[in-house]
Design goal:
It is built from nine helices and no strands. By secondary structure, the chain is an all-alpha fold. It has a domain at 62-193: Tetracycline Repressor, domain 2, CATH 1.10.357.10.
């Protein structure tokens, strides 16, 4: 008969996300994870497998609770062009409000882990593509509604916006201030308004 788990799985997984997000994959030990999650090493291995498996689960949880939640919330609350602007603005705000300047776990994994782990690379690429797809479908919808110029190339602009968001997250890790981050975002958002 299997033993019942004696810990809160959601809380433990959130703690693992925070640990990897703050320290990075290489900088996080199993001991760090065990302490942060409040479970012993054997229980950690039984519940989550090895460190790499736990990292993948942490990426999935982060994507669901951060990226996908934001996309769903903003698409439900805003017109297409406004949803894009709100997404970028929220990224700037969240980056600046984080006292640890952790950036984005997905972008961090793209830089630190993906070059050495093809499977994690595919995972991260898939999640980043969801962000690009969010931009793409909202640009298309805004174009059809006459909210952005008809000449707007949705494919190119959605890729550009993804690059801008990734850049903001990387710059935020270096301690960049609001003026710099908004300066990075502004030209991309102006493309939506047809000013450039």
């Amino acid at each position: 008969m299997a033993r019942a788990k004696t810990f809160d799985e959601d809380r433990a997984l959130d703690a693992a996300v925070d640990c990897f997000w703050l320290r990075g994959y290489e900088g996080t030990s199993v001991r760090d994870l065990s302490e942060a999650m409040g479970i012993g090493g054997p229980s950690l291995y039984n519940a989550y497998g090895d460190k790499r498996e736990l990292f993948e689960r942490s990426l999935r949880r982060y994507a669901e609770r951060s990226m996908r939640e934001r996309i769903a919330r903003l698409e439900a609350a805003h017109q297409p062009g406004e949803a894009i602007a709100a997404f970028v603005t929220e990224i700037v705000d969240r980056s600046l409000k984080d006292p640890d300047r952790k950036g984005c776990l997905l972008v961090n994994a793209a830089l630190d882990v993906a070059p050495h782990d093809a499977e994690v690379g595919r995972m991260v690429s898939s999640y980043l593509d969801e962000i690009r797809s969010f931009f793409r479908r909202n640009i298309d919808a805004a174009r059809k509604a006459g909210q952005v110029p008809r000449r707007t190339d949705a494919e190119a602009l959605s890729a550009h916006l993804l690059g801008v968001v990734a850049g903001i997250r990387v710059l935020a890790r270096t301690g960049a201030n609001r003026k710099l981050l908004e300066s990075v975002a502004r030209p991309a958002l102006e493309l939506l308004e047809g000013r450039r």
